């Protein structure tokens, strides 16, 4: 309520002052240039000699009102409602802009959180991949060691068999002599 009164006052003070000034100037010009309405001049001036007739006539009042209205119109008094509507529209637009900015900030924050979560998932998957690769290397090395050991056992068995065969051939050859 108080804001509305301040707004109206801020828009009306220039038109009000200019209208009052125009009315005052019109009256001053009339007062100092017109003949006063007295009983002697009443018939010639076509006026009524009353106590206020010395200071104001219907014609002067009419001109004061017209000139004040023109001054108020020129200085924007008739545009008050347009200014008020414009201010309300601007306030609504500012609210819309603030809402859009807040919404964009929230979306940016959510996107940033999703990015961080994605990076964390990627880091976790990379770590798990490295662990799997290390485990596969370890298992591969164990298999290779087992295969080498198995090959060594087979080679030894082959050498033992070859040695027995050679001994058997050698004994067979001695037996035939």
What best-fitting shape do the alpha-carbon axes yield?
rod-shaped
Number of strands: 0
Structure classification:
mainly alpha
Radius of gyration: 56 Å
Averaging pLDDT over every residue, what do you get?
Answer: 85
Low-confidence parts lasting 5 or more residues at pLDDT below 50? none
The helix/strand series, from N terminus to C terminus, equals HHHH
What does this structure look like?
The protein is mainly α and 177 residues long. The protein is 85% helix and 0% strand. Helix 1 (2-33) crosses helix 3.
Give structural attributes.
177 residues; mainly alpha; 85% helix; rod-shaped
Task: Explain briefly what this protein structure is.
This protein is mainly alpha-helical and 177 residues long. It is 85% helix and 0% strand.
Q: What layout of secondary structure does this protein have?
A:
Layout: H1 2-33, H2 42-45, H3 58-74, H4 80-176
Helix pairs in contact: 1-3
């Amino acid at each position: 309520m108080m804001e509305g009164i301040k707004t109206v006052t801020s828009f009306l003070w220039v038109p009000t002052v200019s209208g009052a000034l125009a009315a005052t100037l019109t009256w001053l010009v009339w007062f100092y240039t017109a003949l006063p309405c007295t009983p002697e001049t009443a018939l010639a001036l076509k006026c009524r000699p009353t106590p206020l007739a010395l200071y104001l006539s219907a014609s002067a009042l009419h001109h004061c009102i017209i000139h004040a209205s023109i001054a108020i119109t020129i200085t924007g008094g008739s545009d008050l409602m347009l200014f008020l509507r414009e201010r309300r529209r601007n306030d609504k637009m500012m609210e819309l802009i603030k809402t859009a900015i807040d919404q964009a900030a929230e979306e940016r924050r959510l996107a940033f959180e999703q990015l961080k979560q994605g990076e964390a998932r990627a880091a976790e998957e990379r770590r798990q991949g490295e662990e799997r690769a290390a485990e596969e290397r370890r298992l591969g090395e164990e298999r290779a060691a087992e295969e080498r050991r198995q090959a060594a056992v087979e080679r030894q068995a082959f050498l033992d068999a070859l040695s027995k065969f050679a001994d058997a051939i050698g004994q067979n050859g001695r037996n035939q002599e």
